[in-house]
Amino acid sequence: MSNYVIATERLGLRHWLPADTEAFIAMNSDPVVMQYFPQPLQPRQTLAMLQRIEDCFTTNHFGLYVAEEKRTQTFLGFTGFSIPDFNNFFTPCVEVGWRYRKEAWGKGFATEAAKACIDYGFTTLQFNRIVSFTAKINLRSEAVMRRAGMAYVTDFEHPNIAKDHPLCTHVLYTISPA
Predict the structure, then answer these.
(1) What is the pLDDT of residues 56-98, one digit of tens each?
(2) How are strands ordered across the β-sheet holding 6-7?
(3) CA 37/CA 71 separation, integer angstroms
């Protein structure tokens, strides 16, 4: 497919198409995929998220890209950039993030796409710093951050999650251009 914004050996990262909506809704409603979020998303919540993604592209000319396997053109999930909508000591900032269907886990897709996005963020978008964060108990996502070359900064309490919730404590990672 020639409309990839970013391409790796196995993955194409591209803008969203209407045909992605059903797979996106299914992924976000999967309790296994959403284990480290407060709850799985209802279809209307996924549609609202998709609108926020599109708004980010319109406003910032970057966003969360669909990640598809180039060989099969299968929707795997997303990787890309967002701007966190909460105040903290490290905001405002650009975050690299990802979410993948559970069938895509364990194959290195998230790391491959995160590395490519980070490179694109520094070389093409001219970012001077990229962060990533996740619930402290999400060890798989934290491992992706490390494999993508990011460095641990600190733990913090996510301001949008109740302090007594098991997902409140997050880890913060960052990377700057070499």
Answers:
(1) 999 999 999 999 999 999 999 999 999 999 999 999 999 999 9
(2) 6-7, 11-14, 64-69, 74-82, 95-100, 130-135, 169-175, 151-157
(3) 31
